[in-house]
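Please go through the protein record below and explain what the tokens say about the fold. Record follows.
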Amino acid sequence: MRNLSNMIITTQTQLPLYSESVQSASSLSQGAVVKPSLVFLHGLLGSTADWQKIVSHLSSDYQCICIDLPGHAESQAVTANDFQHVQQLIIATLAQYELEHIVFVGYSLGARIAMTIASEPAANWPYTIDGMLLESGNPGLNSSAEQLQRGLHDLGWVTRFSEAPLTQVLPDWYQQGVFASLTKTEKTALIATRSHIQADYNGFNGGKQISKMLAATSLSKQGYLLPKLQAAEFPISMVCGELDPKFVQLTQASQLEYHVVADAGHNVHADQPIVFSALVRGLVSDSLKNKAAQQSAA
């Protein structure tokens, strides 16, 4: 019987993922406190391009680093085995930048990857995490029955992505409940954009690469991370759109700081980029104040 585990091609190579860094001269420090760099992690089927509007609002004050996750866009040739492997790939990717303090901004799959780093950091994790803004991220399933059900659900999508063209799979993908707030026109545009970004190239099948990443990072393989997130020593803020009832419920039940954004669905940063950018600024500002207070007290 096929399962998620045997859908992954094992590789131990720690190739850097594709990334882009944007910053200005004013983005390095605020008084005696070194500003954190903002590291953006997109969702399944996304790319660095998803963050362009947000980066345009924030790069004047912060270094912004956007990463293409394994199997996606310019990182399409990289295959991840599991969450820990993704973490090692992120470490290898960020090594090219002179970083010390970072704030993660993650959407959906990207939020879940950030959650695993916060909860289960690798022994060689080299950076100080000053905060996390987690958009439409699920902190995990708390029962084996839920994990089994989700594993079967994701396996269905893994199979479809691996066997059918993206142009055939994506219309059904965007019929899922979390995308209910999208209009028909918006869905059509998304399908065209995602199909173009994930187009086959250099001998790689775009849909198959997506299927491998989905298999490696299925929610069924993620631990239940909420208790560790609640105990984190740095600020964590959950963000969701009011038009995404599933994640409104998850977010409100998290007992973490959260924001429900009006007139936004699952993808808040696309629906309300100005509001989302302000939330990132607020989280970083709180982090800098905390660090300044700690330095004064030392």
User: Anything to note?
Assistant: Residues 139 and 226 are 6 Å apart (CA to CA). The chain has a mean pLDDT of 91. The radius of gyration is 18 Å.
